[in-house]
Design goal:
Layout (H helix, E strand, L loop, with lengths): L10 H31 L3 H38 L2 H28 L1 H8 L3 H33 L4 H23 L9 H25 L7 H4 L4 H33 L4 H38 L4 H41 L4 H34 L3 H26 L4 H8 L3 H14 L7 H4 L2
Helix pairs in contact: 1-2, 1-6, 1-10, 2-3, 2-5, 2-9, 2-10, 3-5, 4-5, 5-7, 6-7, 9-13, 10-11, 10-12, 11-12, 12-13, 12-14, 12-15, 13-14, 13-15
Length: 462
């Protein structure tokens, strides 16, 4: 099994050259979310729970945007292997249109009906009142973020991941500074609390968009071709629907499933405690998986490019097995690190910073223990679904593999244990993370079939 780790000289150097900027980009983005959570958490347990609930519809938009970026990757990586920058412009145009439509409709709904949207997530009147102003402002910010993310995703898929890292670093530091000023009223700014966190996010997204636009207009590596960027053509649209459409649908339905988890917790008897603990665990999850998503992104670029270069199927399969084993071992290392820091850092230092109730602290600890157990499996699944299978054009199988365990196992079990049976918290937490036990065995079967290895540029060429 470990023999697949023996690769040509320079292989791992190239892998980490691609992965590290993606890891840093994910780390920066995750740090921004953690800073928001931490600063809002200083306001109190209810404020933290309100922002968690308010971020649920925002999370769904983020997931759809991620799906658009992932769908873009499926096509762009292989066109990059062929050196076809005109087709890359066509793909980028379709992705930008999709992102603007989705984020624009969502922003309109959040601005017009903030309390109605909040009421879909939780029936706690206090949380609805606190979260409504936040969700109204933050929704607008993702119209700008959608366009920025599409361009950053294109640069990442063409072996320039460092650009996104730099853009999101500026965005994070600006957002953090504005949070400090606007949440607590520092440096002469008004004290706006939760609303200040939303305003900081909006301003940082606008600045992020301005940086991306300036770079795109002057970049010669992948020059913009307005004629095809704004008019991608029916042939490319058809190719995008066939190969990228399932990815976008996958991420949308996965986001809805994850949102359902939050909704279920928002309607439990201890909803405020569950949501506060879930918010903290969500940030721990994001920090823990930044390396996994970095390796997955690098895997997609490497595998997609080799397919585009017409590599033999067995070579692509061997490369993929190596990358997946690296991911699994990485996940095991992260799990070990979490097992060490949980009793030494999280429980005595981190959790008390958020002014959690005793019940919320117990829930957070239990969630973390279950998460540690599933971490190696999760790392494998991330690279297999979002990296290997999608890069091979097998988006439909990847979607089935990603969605069935969530919707057929995790969501029903969480609803049953949390709302119907009022089961002990450890059982509810096991239900929340139960999907991770199902994906890996099925994913290995699909991987070994080699049916996922497809050159998607043949029918997508225009």
């Amino acid at each position: 099994m470990f023999s697949v780790l023996c690769q040509k000289p320079g292989f791992y150097g190239r892998l980490w050259k691609l992965a590290l900027p993606m890891i840093l980009q994910n780390l920066i983005t995750t740090s921004l979310g953690f800073v928001d959570t931490f600063m809002v958490g200083l306001l109190g347990n209810d404020e933290l729970s309100a922002v968690t609930a308010a971020n649920t519809p925002i999370f769904l938009v983020q997931v759809i945007i991620f799906g658009i970026m992932s769908g873009l990757t499926v096509l762009v990586c292989q066109y990059w292997g062929k050196g076809d920058t005109v087709s890359i412009n066509r793909v980028m145009g379709i992705a930008a249109y999709a992102g603007i439509i989705v984020s624009g409709i969502t922003a309109l709904l959040l601005v017009s009906f903030p309390k109605g949207v909040m009421a879909l997530v939780t029936n706690n009147a206090r949380l609805i009142e606190l979260g409504a102003p936040y969700v109204r402002i933050v929704g607008i910010s993702y119209v700008f973020n959608a366009v920025s993310s599409v361009y950053v995703g294109m640069q990442r898929s063409t072996e320039n991941p460092g650009f996104g890292m730099r853009v999101f670093a500026v965005s994070m530091f600006l957002n953090t500074f504005l949070n400090y000023c606007l949440i607590f009223g520092n440096l002469g700014a008004p004290r706006l609390g939760i609303t200040g966190a939303a305003a900081a996010t909006l301003v940082s997204r606008v600045v992020e968009f301005a940086i991306v636009l300036s770079y795109a207009l002057t970049n010669t590596r992948i020059p913009l071709v307005p004629k095809v960027l704004f008019h991608p053509g029916k042939a490319m649209l058809k190719s995008a629907v066939v190969y990228a459409g399932p990815v976008i649908l996958n991420e949308t339905l996965w986001g809805l499933g994850t949102t359902m988890m939050t909704v279920i917790m928002g309607h439990m008897d201890i909803s405020a405690d569950m949501l506060a603990a879930y918010a903290i665990m969500g940030n721990i999850d994001k920090f823990s998986t930044v390396a996994c998503f970095g390796v997955a992104g690098a895997s997609a670029v490497m595998v997609g490019k080799r397919i585009g270069e017409q590599a033999d199927k067995e070579e692509v399969y061997s490369l993929s097995c190596c990358l997946l084993l690296v991911s699994f071992l990485l996940g095991a290392g992260i799990a070990l690190a979490l097992a060490i820091v949980l009793p030494t850092v999280f429980i005595p230092i981190l959790y008390p910073l958020f002014s959690l109730t005793e019940t919320a602290t117990d829930v957070a600890v239990t969630m973390c223990v279950v998460y540690i157990v599933t971490m190696p499996l999760k790392a494998f699944d991330v690279s297999n679904v979002t990296g290997i299978l999608r890069a091979g054009g097998d988006a439909r199988a990847a979607a089935i593999l990603d969605l069935c365990p969530l919707w057929l196992v995790a969501v029903p079990l969480t609803a049953l244990t949390g709302l119907v049976l009022n089961a002990p918290i450890p059982l509810v937490c096991c239900a929340i993370y139960s999907e991770n036990f199902c994906k890996m065995p099925v994913g290995i079967v699909r991987l070994r079939s080699r049916k996922w290895i497809n050159d998607v540029t043949i029918r997508g060429r225009s």
